[in-house]
């Protein structure tokens, strides 16, 4: 991998040396990428919110995982969380059991699965968004049972639901990342949840109580207090002005796609959980027009943010370093000795040329 390499210390013009899937050295000298025509070499993208891709949805079963992984890696995603939908307990158990039985092996040509994001069912029936109407009150016993089935890393919770503040504290004590979302919580509800151990917000602005100057809501709590939050920058879910406000307010705001089965596919009909959705003109919607996840890819998310005037090195952190840091992963999301050799090579137009996952060259558009 040669070019303008973005390291934690800044840009280096040179090459990465890889041994056994990890970076052994970064050879080169500090450089300004604007002073040469070499390609950009960035850390591979890490997406903590993916439901599907390549025409398949995770809730169909664990047999879809490799299709999702091969689809996502085509667009620079080198590792990701499999994200479940709100559904009856039996269906969630079946999907999680399949994930657990599959183990942690990575199939050739796939992005690395980092674990599971449990998005629901512990959400508000008042803020379902595109989630099915199967919201439930969470219990520690149920989540412990789920944890025995699969490696859950992130749980989305509506904190205003009775018993959920105590649940948030218990989950945080286990080391899980608790995110607030799909919620009608007040500002005070959200602040209490952060005090109880919640650390992030699920697709900021979407499916949560909005900010008003007299009722700040969950959005206001995020802008005032959050260190981490997800955001979908497809320029459909969130207005550019709101994106700018969030990037100024939340230090480690990071990018997710909320990608669905429609990722990498032509316009047409697909599934999101048990629901039918339609991809048209770049958007994925329910029959009533509600946005239902997205068809966004991480490389397009990067180009979107750069087009709004944000520096490439800052945008890169929001697609790689910050999500890795959020999960507590010190060996991903950065190009430095000892880290996994997950990288993307972009041409000067920021189009993806090559993708490497743990040193394996998977995508080559050069």
TrEMBL record:
Record bears the keyword rRNA-binding: no
Binding of substrate, residues: 130, 206-207, 214, 237, 291-293
Domain Amidohydrolase-related: 40-359
Biological processes per GO annotation: N-acetylglucosamine catabolic process
Cofactor(s) listed: a divalent metal cation
Ligand binding (Zn(2+)): 119, 182, 203
Active site: 258 (proton donor/acceptor)
Record's keyword annotation contains Metal-binding: yes
Free-text remark on how the cofactor is bound: Binds 1 divalent metal cation per subunit.
Signal peptide: none
Protein's UniProt name: N-acetylglucosamine-6-phosphate deacetylase
Species assigned in the record: Trinickia dinghuensis
Lineage: Bacteria, Pseudomonadati, Pseudomonadota, Betaproteobacteria, Burkholderiales
Gene expressing this chain: nagA
């Amino acid at each position: 991998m040669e070019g303008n390499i973005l390291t934690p210390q800044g840009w280096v013009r040179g090459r990465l040396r890889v041994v056994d899937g990890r970076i052994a050295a970064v050879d080169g000298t500090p450089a300004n990428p604007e002073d040469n025509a070499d390609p950009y070499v960035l850390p591979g993208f890490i997406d903590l919110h993916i439901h599907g891709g390549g025409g398949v949805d995770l809730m169909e079963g664990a047999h879809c995982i490799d299709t999702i992984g091969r689809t996502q890696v085509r667009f620079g995603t080198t590792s990701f969380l499999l994200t479940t939908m709100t559904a009856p307990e039996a269906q969630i158990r079946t999907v999680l059991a399949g994930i657990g039985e599959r183990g942690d092996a990575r199939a050739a040509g796939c992005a690395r699965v980092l674990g599971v994001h449990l998005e629901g069912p512990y959400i508000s029936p008042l803020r379902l968004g595109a989630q099915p109407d199967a919201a439930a009150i969470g219990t520690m016993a149920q989540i412990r049972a789920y944890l025995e089935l699969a490696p859950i890393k992130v749980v989305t919770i509506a904190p205003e639901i009775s018993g959920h503040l105590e649940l948030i504290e218990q989950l945080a004590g286990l080391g899980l990342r608790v995110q607030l979302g799909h919620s009608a919580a007040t500002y005070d509800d959200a602040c209490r949840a952060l005090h109880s151990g919640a650390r992030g917000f699920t697709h900021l602005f979407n499916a949560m109580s909005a900010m008003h100057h007299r009722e700040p809501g969950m959005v206001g709590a995020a802008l005032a207090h959050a260190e981490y939050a997800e955001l979908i920058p497809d320029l459909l879910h969130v207005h550019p002005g709101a994106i700018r406000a969030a990037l100024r307010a939340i230090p480690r705001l990071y990018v997710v796609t909320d990608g669905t089965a429609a990722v990498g596919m032509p316009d047409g009909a697909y599934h999101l959980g048990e629901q039918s959705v339609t991809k048209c003109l770049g958007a994925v919607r329910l029959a009533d027009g509600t946005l239902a996840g997205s068809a966004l890819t991480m490389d397009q998310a990067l180009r979107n943010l750069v087009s709004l005037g944000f520096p490439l090195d800052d945008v890169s952190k929001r697609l790689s370093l910050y999500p890795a840091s959020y999960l507590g992963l010190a060996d991903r999301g950065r190009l430095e000795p000892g880290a996994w050799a997950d990288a993307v090579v972009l041409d000067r137009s920021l189009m993806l040329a090559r993708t490497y996952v743990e040193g394996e060259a998977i995508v080559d558009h050069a």
